[in-house]
Write a structure and sequence with these properties.
four-stranded antiparallel sheet; 32% strand; elongated; alpha+beta
């Protein structure tokens, strides 16, 4: 009878261990995230591997180092971001996550750096589209650099056009007045 209970206890403990291991392997991803791509690769120590992101909208890059330590650098200014030139980064020893905002210009450059502490690093990166709707407490009129820049350019161009029109008007008016003065005197 004791052997029977011992067997049940061993099976129960083994089931619990498997459950814990599976829980750590599965990643909790919000429902609003849609998996677009899975990229796996290897990178040598001190080297970069570059990827290009063309998808529009809010994107989440979730990378984990399978071996070694790979770091993530992201930029909308250059297609070859590095630890010297980037807009977003994640440089942890474990899982690296970067949220790429919707206003970033496409294509977005992604640089994966193999940390020199390991001869070679292996990584797996999952690319998600984030459908989360952000509620702004002050409405949609929050800061958007692209809209601000476009509005400034538009207001400057209309200002310049009105000044040019005024200048032409005054030039013609002064010319007519000079002509009238010459005729009269």
């Amino acid at each position: 009878m004791a052997a029977h209970w011992r067997r049940i206890l061993i099976i129960f403990v083994a089931a619990q261990v498997l459950l814990v291991v599976n829980t750590f392997e599965e990643e909790d991803v919000p429902e609003e995230w849609i998996l677009l791509h899975v990229v796996q690769g290897q990178i040598g120590a001190g080297n970069y591997s570059y990827l290009r992101l063309n998808h529009e909208g809010k994107i989440v890059l979730q990378m984990r180092s399978l071996k070694g330590d790979a770091d993530l650098y992201v930029s909308d200014m250059t297609l070859h971001p590095s630890f010297d030139e980037y807009e977003l980064q994640s440089v942890t020893c474990g899982q690296d996550i970067v949220h790429v905002p919707a206003h970033f210009r496409r294509p977005v450059g992604i640089g994966i750096y193999g940390h020199p502490s390991h001869l070679e690093s292996e990584f797996e990166m999952k690319v998600y589209y984030d459908r989360t709707v952000v509620q702004y407490p002050f409405g949609e009129a929050s800061y958007n650099p692209e809209e601000m820049e476009a509005n400034q350019k538009y207001s400057q161009s209309t200002e310049d056009e009105s000044q040019d029109e005024e200048s032409v008007f005054w030039t013609i008016l002064i010319g007519i007045l000079k002509l009238i003065l010459e005729i009269l005197f």
